[in-house]
Amino acid sequence: MDNGFFKNIEKKTGVNMKDIFDLANSLQNANFKDEKTVRGVIRKVSQLANKPISRELEDQICNTIIKDGKSLDFNTISNMMNKK
């Protein structure tokens, strides 16, 4: 894909594509059974999306991912944040 495509996404979302790619790379070998790792990813997604979340919602997302075996990706966390 060309650079213009990514610039267009950045313009529409306000999210830097480098940050998205950095997050995606960090997820590749992450241990999603580790609460500290999962909380770090949740906070990073919240920050990138510019959508602060409460500690209660962070706890719910974290528990869902760790205990229920939900896959962890940007869309999963974003959808969970939007339900509140």
From TrEMBL:
It comes from Neobacillus rhizophilus. InterPro entries: SpoVIF. It comes from the Bacteria. This is Stage VI sporulation protein F.
